[in-house]
Amino acid sequence: MNRCDSIGVPGGERTGFWCRRRTMIAAVSALVLLPIGVSDAAARSHVSKHSSRHGKSPKHVASPKSHHVKVAALGPNGIDPSALRSVVNPCDPSKFKIVLDVGHTAESEGAISARNVAEFVFNLRLAKRIEEKLKGEGFAETRLLVTEGRARPSLFRRVAAANRLHADLLLSIHHDAVPDSFLENWEFEGKKSHFSDRFSGYSVFVSRNNADFRTSLLFANLVAKEMKALGLQYARQYSQPVMGRYQHPLLNEETGVYSYDKLIVLKSTQMPAVLLEAGSIINRDEELKMDSAERQDLISSGVTAAVKEFCESRSVQMAR
Predict the structure, then answer these.
(1) CATH of segment(s) 94-319
(2) Residues paired with 171 in a beta bridge
(3) Hey, which of 117, 125, 176, 235 would disulfide with 280, CB 3.0 to 4.6 Å?
């Protein structure tokens, strides 16, 4: 018989109180014993990091050998076991490897903006800004991937390079345009050019053929959520029949995540992979915004926040 059941205290609530109190004491005792086998330095590191983290923070310094401790469910007044797991496996941004793939190459520049600037120029500039932000947040293993050569061969080269790095995540940076049938003519600074003000906005793509599609989709949703939280709108045209062969299934109609299953850089990498179209450079108004330091900082901050949250959630999943 349970000792609590044998206590003859009038009033069931009082009996339950002392039972719960014993349970709480047992839980605290278990926590006191938890760090056995874990270095004191690692324990102190987690406490100091945990006390300063703000909401969606990156993963923090992990102990060299993590010890999983199974704790029985303690009921409504007990300790959440998932909280203990995050203590055991804190996130360590300094060891998290993310590849920032600069879309297109100097030889194959991608789309040409309404003001005759190559997409590759926009991609490289934004990727460098994101790299700077991530490294400033402690993601020291962030790698900028700039590929040379013509379009299709360069796709295989960038995939091979990313796979050799054994990265935890790949994010490919691009800027959007439209099918040629939507283009209109105009002149800018005396030169003939093309534009389309019909569509604007960011979009995020994943491939369902990626070896880790589920994790790719997780990160894609985080990026898109951050873009929306910053007040940006996603490009809705990709789900419309008017896009023809450029139409793609919309996986998240709230934030703008699409599938692009056959895209080599997304399907052939051996790590979770996401492609971000940061905005339309063929739209004359949006091109000016994408060219501004303010918009680049805004997008970089959103991507960095998404990486932090992804890294933290990945740490918890690994602890389970």
Answers:
(1) 3.40.630.40
(2) 100, 274
(3) 176
Taking only the tens place, the pLDDT of each residue in 149-179 is 988 889 999 999 999 999 999 999 999 999 9
Domain limits, the chain: 3-88, 94-319
Q: What is the mean pLDDT of residues 203-208?
A: 98
CB proximity list for 291: less than 8 A, separation 6 or greater = 117, 122
Phi-psi region of 138 (alpha: psi -120 to 50; beta: other; left: phi over 0): left
3-state secondary structure the chain: CCHHHHCCCCCHHHHHHHHHHHHHHHHHHHHHHCCCCCCHHHHHHHHHHHHHCCCCCCCCCCCCCCCCCCCCCCCCCCCCHHHHHHHHCCCCHHHCCEEEEECCCCCCCCCECCCCCEHHHHHHHHHHHHHHHHHHCCCCCCEEECCCCCHHHHHHHHHHHHHHCCCCEEEEEEEECCCHHHCEEEEECCEEEEECCCCCCEEEEECCCCCCHHHHHHHHHHHHHHHHHCCCCECCHHHCHHHHHHCCCEEECCCCEEECCCCHHHHCCCCCEEEEEEEECCCHHHHHHHCCHHHHHHHHHHHHHHHHHHHHHHHHHHHC
Give every CB contact of residue 181 below 8 A, 6+ residues apart in sequence.
none
pLDDT digits (tens, 9 = 90+) for 254-276: 999 999 999 999 999 999 999 99
95 φ/ψ angles, rounded to the nearest 5 degrees: -110, 0
- Look at residue 62 in the predicted model and tell me its pLDDT: 37
